């Protein structure tokens, strides 16, 4: 199984009267995500599932990905990927789905913590930028500490104006 952890794109700032759940991608976040996804397609042929946090900014990111891969029918919205997501819940979910390539779109610091927990029994530090993608390979099913990090790609590699 190949598990892809993806952090949502740049989103609106928190403001009084607007719930965190409702924060949308900024124009910069939308463009950076679209640019990154166009390059991802060179190294990732398809996703069997694209699982998104229900928060608007994550869902918008997941929709950009699903649209680019002509995979809107493979998009799932899961509350367990919301802010504060738990690794055990993600493991149970992705293992229950089957599939070779599964993407999970979520939030920080969750994505950094999950990446660390998937690849190490200790704490592995990683900077997980907005619109970044990490690929973790498992020999069979996803397990804590049993993954191999193949890559962690920040969006600036694909977006000159973000460097």
Task: Tell me what the structure shows.
- The protein has 163 residues and is α/β, with parallel strands linked by helices.
- The protein has a single domain (2-12, 21-162), classed as Phosphoglycerate mutase-like (Rossmann fold, 3-Layer(aba) Sandwich).
- 31% of the residues lie in helices and 18% in strands.
- It has 4 helices and 6 strands; from the N terminus they run βαβαβαβαββ.
- The protein has helices at residues 27-43, 56-68, 87-97, 110-119, and strands at 2-7, 49-52, 75-77, 101-106, 133-137, 148-153.
- The chain has a 6-stranded mixed β-sheet, sandwiched between helices.
- Helix 1 crosses helix 2.
- The chain is globular and about 40 Å long.
- It starts with a strand and ends in a 10-residue tail after the last strand.
- The relative contact order is 0.23.
- The mean pLDDT is 93.
Summarize the structure.
The chain is an alpha/beta fold and 163 residues long. The chain contains four helices and six strands; from the N terminus they run βαβαβαβαββ.
List descriptors.
about 160 residues; alpha/beta; Rossmann fold; six-stranded mixed beta sheet; globular
Question: How do the helices and strands line up, and which of them pair or pack?
Answer:
Elements (H helix, E strand, L loop, with lengths): L1 E6 L19 H17 L5 E4 L3 H13 L6 E3 L9 H11 L3 E6 L3 H10 L13 E5 L10 E6 L10
Parallel strand pairs: 1-4, 2-3, 2-4
Antiparallel strand pairs: 1-5, 5-6
Helix pairs in contact: 1-2
């Amino acid at each position: 199984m190949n598990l892809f952890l993806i952090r949502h794109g740049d989103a609106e700032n928190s403001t009084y009267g607007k719930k965190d759940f409702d924060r949308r991608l900024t124009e910069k976040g939308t463009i950076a995500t679209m640019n990154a996804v166009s390059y991802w397609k060179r190294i990732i042929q398809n996703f069997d599932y694209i699982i998104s946090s229900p928060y608007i900014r994550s869902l918008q990111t997941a929709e950009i990905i699903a649209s680019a891969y002509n995979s809107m029918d493979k998009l799932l919205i899961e509350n367990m990927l919301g802010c504060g997501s738990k690794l055990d819940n993600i493991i149970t979910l992705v293992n229950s789905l089957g599939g070779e390539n599964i993407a999970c779109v979520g939030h920080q610091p969750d994505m950094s913590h999950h990446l660390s927990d998937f690849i190490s029994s200790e704490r592995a530090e990683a900077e997980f930028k907005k619109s970044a993608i990490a690929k973790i390979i498992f020999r069979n099913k996803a397990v804590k500490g049993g993954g191999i990090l193949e890559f962690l790609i920040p969006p600036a590699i694909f977006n000159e104006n973000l460097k």
